[in-house]
Amino acid sequence: MTQISVERKHSLGREAARAKAQALVEKLSREYDLKANWNGDRVDVTRSGANGSVHIGEDTIRVELKLGMMLSIMGSTIKSEIERALDKALA
């Protein structure tokens, strides 16, 4: 099992960051068949072979994802995609 953790600082405030994260999660849900479940400022995401969460803070967003064996071989690519998507969403 591979664990991915990506954190980005932002100056948007919690509510604006949550709105951006929600739009990003909706897009990724459509593209990658993710199931998302919001719980306050955290969204838990799952799909076959992966599960994790996105934590929205006042000045940070942290993505934690665990990949099963089949997706582990794509771990570095998936991490790069998460970093790119976060950077774009927070720009």
> Into which percent range does the helicity of residues fall?
40-55%
Strand content: 35-45%
Number of continuous helical runs:
3
Rounded to an integer in angstroms, the radius of gyration calculated over CA atoms is: 12 Å
Which spans have pLDDT < 50 for at least 5 consecutive residues? none
Structural class: alpha+beta
Strand order of the largest sheet: 1-5-4-3-2
Outline the biggest β-sheet: 5 strands, antiparallel
Can you write the helix and strand succession as a string?
EHEEEEHH
Principal-axis shape equals globular
The count of β-strands is 5
Mean pLDDT: 91
Through-space gap between termini: 31 Å
Please explain how this structure is put together:
The protein has 91 residues and is of the alpha+beta class. A five-stranded antiparallel β-sheet has the order 1-5-4-3-2. Helix 1 crosses helix 3. The longest helix is centred in the N-terminal third of the chain and has 19 residues. The chain is globular and about 35 Å long. The protein starts with a strand and ends with a helix. Pfam families: PHA_gran_rgn. This is Polyhydroxyalkanoic acid system family protein.
What features would you highlight for this structure?
91 residues, alpha+beta, 5-stranded antiparallel sheet, 3 helices, 5 strands, globular, Polyhydroxyalkanoic acid system family protein, PHA_gran_rgn
